[in-house]
UniProtKB/TrEMBL annotation:
This is HNH nuclease domain-containing protein. Residues 177-260 form the HNH nuclease domain. It comes from the Eukaryota. Residues 368-379 have a biased composition (Acidic residues). Residues 84-99, 149-162 have a biased composition (Polar residues). Residues 108-122 have a biased composition (Low complexity). It comes from Cladophialophora immunda.
Length: 402
């Protein structure tokens, strides 16, 4: 039976099961990412899908999400997006709460469509050329209207990585893995992936198949806006989007072998409680029975007999274990953002359910021309360095302790 508060909490909801069965009667088998998203979606979105969305339009949208957007693969960093470099390194500002919430650009509904959430997908496909297999080739999609004038604010990061923000994360987490309490070597992991920073740029939103448009198919505008506002305009390179992990925990995190559920942040922002959950993985399949109930929960280990231990108590880290993160300075070294952790809680589960976490990087035949090189922002001494994604994310240098 599904847990009432763990990774399978949504799967025991009778209304969700009934709505999923209604969709199953219409569509049968669908792509694995769409299957995972529907089982984890906000219930009002699921009601809309089951009650009114045209079947052909949904099928097209789900195909786009799997083959074009590659939502789960992108979250698992199995889909590399080009990263632009800047000639002059930039400093990353300390994120401050915005007085005016920003809404991510979203598609303009078509009056001819009965499904506003999906209409941009249909509009964007008109006039596209197709290959012999019937899949579309890369043809620019029609521009979509931005959600509000404020969404055109300048996106401040240049696309590079920030060593100064990484150092703040090291200091906040006291040069230890927040899960195992192990010391060096420690790596800094992104909550919202660095490789998806390009999806925050207005120019990247000009298509009905953008990453953020796809999220709106399954989760409410309020929820998606909150996720977006936690990143915009400063992007991925802020301390609140970083977390310190030992190398094996970082590797398991990248494969969605576990997820962290946000519980609560203290009023003074100095303490954050999270809950650890191992996630079982599924082999990737092109199609999945829509009514197949997902299985995610496992107790004391991850896929492939992976385990983590608290080095201070020598106890195995198990699902449901609560972990406390602290900071001495919530302004300079803020704790991980609750909304970003919530986004991770949903999308790590989507990744595990869809089988995207264990896919090889070239599974979907990405272009060899994609650029994996990132440029660091200028550090506090005014130096800018260039590193590859792998070198930055797996940096095992022992940093000098103060």
């Amino acid at each position: 039976m599904a847990s009432t508060n763990g990774p399978e909490a949504e799967f025991s909801d009778p209304e969700r099961i009934r709505l999923i069965q209604t969709l199953k009667d219409k569509m049968g088998e669908i792509q694995p990412t769409a299957w995972a998203c529907l089982w984890l979606s906000d219930i009002e979105k699921l009601r809309g899908a089951a009650g009114g969305w045209p079947t052909a339009l949904m099928a097209m949208a789900f195909h786009n999400m799997e083959c074009d957007t590659k939502l789960a693969q992108a979250w698992a960093q199995r889909k590399r997006a080009p990263v632009s470099t800047a000639s002059t390194p930039q400093r990353v500002p300390t994120p401050q709460a915005s007085a005016t919430p920003i809404r991510p650009p979203q598609a303009q509904p078509s009056s001819a469509q009965s499904s506003p959430a999906l209409s941009p997908l249909a509009d964007g496909r008109r006039g596209q050329k197709r290959t012999v297999s019937g899949r579309p080739i890369s043809t620019p999609l029609q521009p979509i209207a931005l959600g509000s004038p404020s969404a055109n604010q300048q996106f401040s990061p240049s696309g590079g990585r920030s060593k100064s923000q990484r150092e703040r994360c090291y200091q906040r987490d006291q040069m230890k893995c927040v899960l195992t309490k192990a010391g060096d070597p420690i790596e800094v992991a992104h909550i919202y992936p660095f490789s998806l920073q390009i999806e925050l740029r207005p120019a990247s939103q000009q298509s009905g198949t953008s990453f953020w448009t796809m999220l709106r198919m399954f989760w409410s505008d309020e929820r998606v806006d909150a996720w977006f506002n936690a990143l915009f305009p400063h992007g991925t390179e802020t301390c609140q989007n970083l977390i310190g992990l030992c190398p094996n925990a970082h590797a398991y995190w990248g494969k969605a072998y576990f997820a962290l559920k946000p519980i609560q942040m203290s009023d003074d922002k100095k303490r954050l409680d999270i809950e650890f959950h191992w996630l079982s993985s599924n082999p990737y399949a092109e199609r999945v029975d829509l009514a197949q109930v997902p299985s995610l929960a496992i107790t004391d280990h991850g896929p492939n007999e992976t385990r983590l231990f608290d080095v201070q108590t020598l106890e195995v880290i198990s699902s449901g274990q609560q972990i406390c993160l602290t900071t001495d300075d919530p302004e300079l070294r803020p704790l991980p953002n609750m909304k970003l952790l919530e986004m991770q809680w949903y999308l790590h589960r989507v990744t595990a359910m869809s089988g995207a976490g264990d896919l090889p990087d070239d599974f979907f035949h990405q272009s060899d021309d994609e650029d994996d090189v990132g440029v660091d922002f200028e550090d506090d001494q005014g130096r800018g360095d260039t590193e590859s994604d792998y070198e930055w994310d797996t940096d095992r240098e022992t940093w000098a302790r103060s």
